[in-house]
Amino acid sequence: xxxxxxxxxxxxxxxxxxxxxxxxxxxxxxxxxxxxxxxxxxxxxxxxxxxxxxxxxxxxxxxxxxxxxxxxxxxxxxxxxxxxxxxxxxxxxxxxxxxxxxxxxxxxxxxxxxxxxxxxxxxxxxxxxxxxxxxxxxxxxxxxxxxxxxxxxxxxxxxxxxxxxxxxxxxxxxxxxxxxxxxxxxxxxxxxxxxxxxxxxxxxxxxxxxxxxxxxxxxxxxxxxxxxxxxxxxxxxxxxxxxxxxxxxxxxxxxxxxxxxxxxxxxxxxxxxxxxx
Length: 277
Hints:
mainly alpha; 3-stranded parallel sheet; 5 strands
């Protein structure tokens, strides 16, 4: 990479009076009708999207009841860990994950159960049975698979969905059969084989980690994109703006090898909860 060795500064130009103008930024501009949307998806796509949203809502509802009432449908459990839920954000998580590939990576916040599950369910649909079985057998030497395959009589994709949901619950409950042996817990769960990378308990923490992951993809020509899922409150944190500035440096396009593809393959996705409006 060639870095600038000298910069010519002409005072008359630097101190010349001028003004900065920005183009208008549209808000809530997407406005397609239901009939228009129907043409973009198959009926099975809509069923899959609705299915995944229901899975996410039920997952969070169960956690909520266990945390508040100490039981779910007669099964008692004392959950001493956190339960940072995202009830009401199911469509945002599923809508994002539905079109992502397995090689696309997501990084989240302390409130990312839904994003984890949505990305996992999307990956399961896109992977063939052999690949799914290889992942489940190879992950932690098949420890999680050993639990969920007992008495299972359905398809491999159904088994993989059980694997995903069980592994995420077990991680929340600090069990050794969790995706990260219970050491990550609710706020740090991750599962790389499905493109699910660590979430972060620090507000806006992923805002400075994600650009580095995107840079890795760009330099190694790894393919896929990186999405940083953070809340609007994160934009009050300096590291998020550092990440944005790092991601938008012009040297990616002007100084780097053109074959690398220009800017970073990165999206900052803000879940607007009205914190800073």
